[in-house]
Amino acid sequence: MRNYITDIFDRDTIIHLRIPFSLFLFPIFCFAISQSVTINWMNTLIVFISLHFFIYPGSNVYNSYMDNDKGSIGGLKNPPPATIKLYNASIIMDTIGLLLCLFVNMWLLLLMLLYVAVSKAYSWRGIRLKKYAILSWLIVITFQGAFTFMIVNMCSENNFNTQWFDNKNIACMLIASLLIGGFYPLTQIYQHDEDSRRGDYTISYKLGVIGTFIFSALLFLLASAISYYYFSSYYGVGQFFIFSGCLFPVVVYFLYWFTITLRDKSSADFAHAMRMTMLSSLSMIVCFSTIFILNQH
Q1: Is residue 157 in some structural domain?
Q2: Which residue range forms the structural domain that includes residue 64?
Q3: Per-residue pLDDT tens for 172-202?
Q4: Which run of H or E residues covers position 88?
Q5: Residues contacting 256, CB < 8 A, separation 6+
Q6: Does residue 102 lie within any of the structural domains?
Q7: Is the pTM higher than 0.90?
């Protein structure tokens, strides 16, 4: 058994897990915790470990196996070859992540199972939701945004009742989806050629390079407008200023990247996309961590 596990999780598989890449989805987790009224720390720890160390990496290796990318992918400039080991690793990672959910309750297991199933359908060649530009975008922003906020906040508050779906939490789900919705096309902007060769016509491919920037900017503006309504309604405008202040360096870099891409479309590359991803993730982590501290005191 030990040899079987070590054979599957070799150096290439571990690289394809892209565990550090889970950092880019951590802001939604932080947002969900920052909006928790009461916090069950054991539940919070379990859902954090399940998501960021097993479910997300399991989705990463499965996607790598199905895509068999030769060029750069999210978090990896030069990915190793994709082998059957990645498929086996995804099953192991998903199984462990799902079993961990049982330490919270059956509701979390069922919700996480739905997340895993949709993630598989997104990449699996038999269904391949990824090839449908608008549908795949809607699925990503729903499950990595609203759905993730929901399961993390529900776990944190240990509240899996239908009463959880009040106006406050629904507004948070909308903000989470809009943030992911604006960010996600920018991660596809350098993969148009490779995606289209596989028949995956992503929303970024459909929009084009310049259209992707404009679309993302509109989504970020909409997210900011709803965030202003949300924070001013439930906490006070001061928290919106924290939100907008933390976004300021992201906006500056976005405008810089957009400007140089207008002059030379080759600037819509892996390096700039990863810098944008890292900067936006760290900024939002700082934002929601600060709001968390304020709300807890």
Answers
A1: no
A2: 1-25+34-131
A3: 999 999 999 999 999 889 888 777 777 778 8
A4: helix 84-101
A5: none
A6: yes
A7: yes
